[in-house]
Amino acid sequence: MIGGSLLSKRNPAFSRLARYVKPYFPWVALTVFASLCVAAIDIVLGKAIERLAEETFGSPVAMIFMVLGMVLVGMPCKFMIKYASAKFSVSALKDLRNELVDRFGDLAMSSVERRFTGDLVSRLTNNTAVLQNFFIQHFANLFYLPVVFIGALTLLLLTSWKLVLSSLVLMPLGIVLAALLNKPIQSYSAQLQEKISELNVVAQDAIGGIAIVKAFNMQAAFLKKYTLIMDEVIRQGLRMEKRYAAITPIGVALFSTPIILVIAYGGYLIAQGELSAGGIVLFLYLITFVLQPISMLPTMISQVKEAAGAAQHLFEALDWPTERKGQMNLPVRPTAAPVRFEAVTFSYDGETKVLDRISFQVNEGETVAIVGGSGGGKSTLFKLLCGFYEPEPEGGIIEVFGRPLSDWDPAELRARLSLVSQESYLFPATIAENIGYGRTDATREEIVEAAKAAHAHEFIMQLPQGYETPLGERGGGLSGGQKQRISIARAFLKDTPLLLLDEPTSALDSHSEALVQSALKSMMGGRTVLVIAHRLSTVRQADRILVLDQGRIAESGTHDELLRHNGVYSKLYVQQFAAAEDEDTGGLDRSQAARRGERGLQAGVR
Ligand SMILES: Nc1ncnc2c1ncn2[C@@H]1O[C@H](COP(=O)(O)OP(=O)(O)OP(=O)(O)O)[C@@H](O)[C@H]1O
Q1: Taking Cα atoms as reference points, which of 263, 239, 244 lies closest to residue 178?
Q2: Backbone angles phi, psi at 346, to 5 degrees
Q3: Which residue intervals define the domain ABC transporter in the entry (predicted)?
Q4: Which atom of ligand 1 is closest in space to residue 372's alpha carbon?
Q5: For the chain, what is the domain count?
Q6: Taking a C-beta distance cutoff of 8 angstroms, is the pair 262, 166 a contact?
Q7: Does residue 284 form part of some domain?
Q8: What's the gap in Å between 597 CA and the centre of ligand 1?
């Protein structure tokens, strides 16, 4: 069928889409069948009306009943087109959506990190909505329009080819002129849509960044921006309406004049005896079925293109690289060090080395602090350990619990480590659920135990709904410290032998900070910990400190050893940690630190 081939042969995206539609083939067949029935009824009705007009059917009453009968049969067919197309498209797109959501969970970090969340969500919602609309509104037309066009045109040519010829010249002319008149409206409408999206962006920014907007007293600036665009929207809208009002009568005239001319010509042909009265009735009824497909052709083409674009966009997302699956249940070497890096080199883009021949080992129960300037590669180290990224095969060896990273199934690896990041990500769910994500089979008692260990139980119990308190987006409704403690409780519940900790540096009040620190401290006990350290107290307590500088391990040792070494750490200490000196117990005083820092700088350390 023309429609079918238009959909599948030319477009790889459509033929791929067809795989999702295939399981619902009976509903597709029903849609096509009902469309063809409607096309047939429309044509046969023309013939019946002609006979009625010519009174050649015998009893006009019987004829009227027949016409009404056909109209009545047409109604369930039209219903069936909508219902069956909705049925197969909703089901097929549900399967596609499920696959996409499933795929999003498996996406490689490299597929996600550089994309906007909006892009992922838009593929899932907008693109599927475009396809849904296409299937329900336009799919049946791909079958109905060609059939009705060919049927009506054949019948009309048999009735009076002269009239067909004259109307095919005159009527499309009217349609084209009316469309030309409408063209500026299309561009006005596009501009209007653009302005409306601008308006939405401003509103979204103002709502999304409400805290900053308020803190910087930017409300007036935003309001001004908003009203300026709003004025433009109104101006544009009015301009469009004015144009509409002006051209509607002209459009009607342009559209109806050719029809009047054709009727007049038809009258002339009747007078000449070349056409019967029934013939002109048949003609007036059927000509719309010839003209409609012609006038709808551009719309149909653009609809097909739009749907193809949406499908392509969706399948692109399905083709984004996913994480590899590893072997499950491989034995762990219990005596091996929990973490070992050997000459690890890593680059995100294949060019710039973010880690350069890094080698170190973390033994069981050890706490190793990683320090270094911004962009030194600290977070990248964690991303590798979590299996979010992997070095190239020749990029060294990473072993976790004695097994090379490449052997691990990512999910199995992550089940053995907990990551507590600086920004505590909480989900729009209850507090209990947020902690429970640490281990999905945890009982309420275990969740409460974890919350107690993380010093979160007390404040949770003070909330009116306690553990059942629903959290807003990103944990809205809780303080920074409270959010941190919920994240720590989640990690407590997960109870893994290896802990990757990016120490929170967000401005917590001193009480909250003390609670978070003490929660972290109790979690670190008895575990192997790699901590990106931002606090002097943590660095001091670490068994070893690795100083990461521009992707290399510049120094390694204890706090005192490194200070004595008077190198990168010494300088970093002055820059980052000395300010906290007063708050910490028994360390260097600031002037001593500064002096050591100076020596570090003099020694030529960057
Ligand atoms: N997803 C990514 N794609 C490409 N480059 C990245 C990506 N993530 C980080 N980088 C780059 O890698 C380098 C190291 O970044 P990383 O986040 O590991 O540093 P860091 O030591 O944790 O820094 P900070 O202390 O500021 O968080 C930086 O130059 C950064 O721009």
Answers
A1: 244
A2: -145, 145
A3: 339-575
A4: 21
A5: 2
A6: yes
A7: no
A8: 26
Say whether both 463 and 407 belong to one domain: no
Residue 406 and residue 395: Cα distance in Å, rounded?
A: 12
Going from the C-alpha of 324 to that of each of 390, 406, 418, 474, 558, the distances in angstroms are 10, 9, 21, 29, 38
How many whole angstroms separate alpha carbon 227 and alpha carbon 583? 50
In the listed set 457, 478, 495, which residue is the last one of a domain according to the structure?
A: 495
Q: Which residues of 438-455 are buried (b: 16+ CB within 10 A; e: fewer)?
A: bbeebeeebbbbbbebbb
Choose which residue among 379, 419, 535 to substitute to test ligand 1 binding: the one with the highest number of ligand atoms within 8 A of its C-beta: 379
Nearest atom of ligand 1 to the alpha carbon of 376: 21
Output the CA 455–ligand 1 centroid distance in Å.
Answer: 32
Tokens of 532: 């990106």
Range of the domain at 388: 326-416+496-557
Provide the CATH number for the domain around residue 410: 3.40.50.300
Q: What is the pLDDT of residues 316-327, one digit of tens each?
A: 888 888 888 777
Residues 6 or more apart in contact with residue 483 via CB below 8 angstroms = 424, 426, 475
CA-nearest of 548, 527, 309 to 419 is 527
113 CB within 6 A, ligand 1: yes
Q: CB-based contacts of 212: which residues, under 8 Å, 6+ apart?
A: 218
- 86, 61, 254, 236: which is closest to 172 by C-alpha? 254
With a 6 Å cutoff on the Cβ, whether 551 touches ligand 1 is no
Residue type, 351: E
Angle at 148 between CA 147 and CA 152, to 5 degrees: 120
**Gyration radius (Cα) of the chain, Å:** 36
Residues whose CB falls within 8 Å of the CB of residue 119, separated by 6 or more in sequence, listed in order: none
Q: For residue 385, what are its two tokens?
A: 């350990």
For 361, 366, 378, 515, the CA distances from 534, given in Å and listed in that order, are 21, 18, 12, 16
Angle of CA points 433, 436, 437, to nearest 5°: 90
| 417-420: strand order across its sheet | 417-420, 498-502, 528-532, 367-371, 544-549, 552-557
Cα-Cα end-to-end distance for the chain: 72
Please write the tens of the pLDDT for every residue from 78-89: 999 999 999 999
Q: Is the CB of 373 under 6 A from ligand 1?
A: no
503 and 409 fall within a common domain: yes
Residues contacting residue 147 through CB under 8 Å, at least 6 positions apart:
35, 36, 39, 40
Is residue 31, in this structure, part of any structural domain at all? no
The rounded Å distance from CA 134 to ligand 1 centre is: 43
The predicted-structure confidence for 469-525, as pLDDT tens digits, reads as follows: 988 766 667 888 888 889 888 988 988 889 898 876 655 666 767 777 777 777 777
SS3 529: strand
What are 330-358's pLDDT values in tens digits?
676 666 778 999 999 999 988 889 999 99
ipTM score: 0.96
One domain, residues 376 and 402: yes
Q: Which of 205-214, 235-244, 291-300, 311-320 has the lowest mean pLDDT?
A: 205-214
